[in-house]
From TrEMBL, chain A:
<feature type="transmembrane region" description="Helical">
    <location>
        <begin position="109"/>
        <end position="130"/>
    </location>
</feature>
<feature type="domain" description="ABC transmembrane type-1">
    <location>
        <begin position="74"/>
        <end position="266"/>
    </location>
</feature>
<feature type="transmembrane region" description="Helical">
    <location>
        <begin position="245"/>
        <end position="266"/>
    </location>
</feature>
<feature type="transmembrane region" description="Helical">
    <location>
        <begin position="186"/>
        <end position="207"/>
    </location>
</feature>
<keyword id="KW-0812">Transmembrane</keyword>
<dbReference type="InterPro" id="IPR000515">
    <property type="entry name" value="MetI-like"/>
</dbReference>
<dbReference type="InterPro" id="IPR035906">
    <property type="entry name" value="MetI-like_sf"/>
</dbReference>
<dbReference type="Pfam" id="PF00528">
    <property type="entry name" value="BPD_transp_1"/>
</dbReference>
<feature type="transmembrane region" description="Helical">
    <location>
        <begin position="15"/>
        <end position="36"/>
    </location>
</feature>
<dbReference type="InterPro" id="IPR050901">
    <property type="entry name" value="BP-dep_ABC_trans_perm"/>
</dbReference>
<keyword id="KW-1133">Transmembrane helix</keyword>
<feature type="transmembrane region" description="Helical">
    <location>
        <begin position="142"/>
        <end position="165"/>
    </location>
</feature>
<feature type="transmembrane region" description="Helical">
    <location>
        <begin position="78"/>
        <end position="97"/>
    </location>
</feature>
<protein>
    <submittedName>
        <fullName>Carbohydrate ABC transporter permease</fullName>
    </submittedName>
</protein>
<keyword id="KW-0813">Transport</keyword>
<keyword id="KW-0472">Membrane</keyword>
<keyword id="KW-1003">Cell membrane</keyword>
Length: 280, 300
């Protein structure tokens, strides 16, 4: 929309804009590139050769992937992310439809349940929840992580979906209703398919939340069987003795690649989904 | 006749109940977990809870009094204020500049936009570990650069002031991209004709920026401010893996202090009191920002 204005700008302004942009972009990727570069080095060559390793080795990745427990941590992370995202999407679709299509008495009050959690810091919830989780014998279980991950992901997902559902023309649903579609069918067969970009955005953000989550898994699990990738990375980062940075960097890169891959695949939907959600 | 009335009545009730039924699962899980935690946290902060004692006597505000007198808390509050203040200033400037230049360019804009958000997708722990790698040890790249420039060769994370700078930089790196996205969203809604009209009136770039750009994105600016201050005020994931609160207590922000109090010192009730202090500050911040934004934009 505003593209046209940039074309007739003076050359000087454009050079400065590009310079600044390249600088900030470099800042955003530099820590990741530095870590990526180190993941192909050995402890001896760690600080030599700059960004391009002289003699790149895949040994660190081999050690990460074949290390004890890695498949377990990976499966834990994957399982928790997928299950909590599936539940989040299901619950959020219903709630978002309710908010988007109905005017009802307690709407504003109930909307607060979607808005207030944004200012509730995750780390501060662990003290009171720890007490409850302990008394319910749910420490070290998938159940507690799935429930807490879902609870923290639902508000954001619902908020994003409300915007998308409101944009679905009511006429489409009315036509489906005349054909005898129940409300259940209208939600899942009409509204959701049309709002696919919103579903993708909400879904990937929920995956991100669960995949990257740290305080809950730190507080609510103790057994190594329950560890997720971020938790293991946290433990690795401060091992006794000499820190094996190439190995740690290979582990770091391994944990961030899946979510970055998903993000880059659906970048357009996510950025548009987030922007329209934020601007509303 | 009667059946029709009955039918429509039933329909009416069904219609009325539908939104509540749809909302129930979401509200139940959010209220059940988050709502419970808040209420329970408030209650906990008024009792003396000892791990090895069965009795939990009501102590009123005693936990809060202990807290406000404790040097550890005062230190954390100060560290948090510096950390949040610095992040807001640097983060807002950076994300505004970033959004402005992204909005300026026409070539490969979507590529740069995609890269801009990458730090937001990385986990806090991974971000912290990458930043730790940049700054840990005598051979770390940051130490080498500082030594080459004639500065100190001491590891940045071993120096209290520099460690605070490092967590602030890591935090800006981690959370500013989302603010950039918010601001970019705002910039894209500005009607180009407004600039064209201003140009006809002879306005320069700076005047256009001050009189058109900034006023048009005030709501997004306050949203970005809100994001930056909440995210940094509650930041935990970055700090614990990066410095663990140290060296000493030089990077022990409130969230980390609270965690250590509860899970290292097993002092749950004072930890809960810190939680309530954090919540109250969050609520106060959002009230200020919403007022500054002029109106609540929650439900349109």
């Amino acid at each position: 929309m505003t593209d046209n204005s940039s074309i007739n700008r003076p050359l000087g302004t454009r050079v400065v804009a590009w310079g600044v942009l390249l600088l900030i972009t470099l800042w955003a990727v530099l820590p990741i590139l530095w870590s990526l570069s180190a993941s192909f080095k050995t402890p001896l060559t760690l600080y030599t050769g700059g960004f391009l390793p002289d003699d790149p080795t895949f040994d660190n990745y081999r050690r990460v992937l074949t290390s004890d427990g890695f498949p377990n941590y990976m499966m834990n992370s994957l399982f928790l992310a997928l299950v909590s995202t599936a539940i989040t999407l299901f619950v959020s679709v219903l709630a978002a439809y309710g908010f988007a299509r109905y005017a009802f008495r307690w709407r504003h009050i109930l909307l607060l349940f979607i808005l207030i959690p944004r200012i509730l810091p995750r780390a501060s919830l662990i003290i009171p929840l720890y007490d409850l989780v302990e008394s319910l014998n749910l420490l070290d279980t998938y159940t507690v992580l799935i429930i807490t991950y879902t609870a923290t992901a639902v508000p954001m997902a619902t908020w994003i979906l409300i915007g998308f559902f409101q944009a679905v023309p009511k006429e489409l649903e009315e036509a489906a209703a005349i054909d005898g579609a129940s409300i259940w069918q209208r939600i899942w067969k009409v509204v959701v398919p049309i709002s696919l970009p919103g579903m993708v955005t909400a879904g990937i953000l929920s995956l991100r939340e669960a995949w990257n989550e740290f305080p809950f898994v730190l507080a609510f699990t103790t057994s190594s069987d329950m560890r997720t990738l971020p938790y293991q990375l946290f433990l690795m980062r401060d091992s006794m003795g000499i820190t094996d940075w190439p190995l740690i960097n290979a582990f770091t890169i391994t944990t961030i690649v899946p979510i970055l891959f998903l993000y880059l695949l659906f970048e357009r939907q996510i950025v548009n989904g987030l922007t329209s959600g934020a601007v509303k | 006749m009667a059946t029709i009335v009955e039918g429509s009545l039933r329909d009416k009730i069904t219609m009325r109940m539908t939104p509540y039924v749809l909302l129930f699962p979401a509200i139940a899980i959010v209220a059940g977990v988050l709502g419970y935690a808040v209420v329970r946290g408030i209650i906990m902060s008024f009792f003396q809870i000892e791990v090895w004692e069965a009795e939990e006597p009501f102590v009123g505000l005693a936990n809060y009094r202990t807290l406000f007198r404790s040097p550890g808390f005062q230190n954390s509050l100060l560290i948090s204020l510096i950390f949040v203040g610095a992040t807001i200033v640097i983060g807002l400037l950076m994300s505004l500049v970033h959004a402005l230049v992204l909005n300026q360019i026409a070539f490969a804009r979507s590529v740069f936009r995609a890269i801009a958000l990458i730090p937001y997708l990385v986990s806090g722990v991974a971000a912290a570990v990458m930043w730790r790698f940049l700054f840990t040890g005598d051979a770390a790249i940051a130490t080498q650069i500082s030594a080459a420039l004639g500065g100190s060769t001491v590891s940045w994370l071993a120096d209290p002031d520099k460690a605070l700078m490092v967590i602030t930089m890591a935090n800006v790196w981690f959370i500013a991209p989302f603010a950039t996205l918010i601001l970019l969203g705002g910039l894209q809604t500005i009607d180009p004709e407004m600039y064209a009209a201003a140009e006809i009136d002879g306005a320069g770039s700076w005047q256009k920026f001050v009189h058109i750009t900034i006023p048009s994105i005030v709501p997004m600016l306050s949203l970005a401010l809100m994001w930056l201050s909440f995210a940094s005020f509650n930041m935990f994931d970055i700090i614990l893996p990066l410095t663990g609160g140290g060296p000493g207590r030089s990077t022990e922000v409130l969230a980390v202090y609270m965690y250590q109090l509860a899970f290292r010192d097993l002092n749950y009730s004072t930890g809960a009191a810190v939680m309530i202090v954090i919540l109250i500050i969050n609520i106060a911040l959002s009230a200020i920002f919403l007022r500054a934004a002029g109106r609540s934009r929650d439900d349109r």
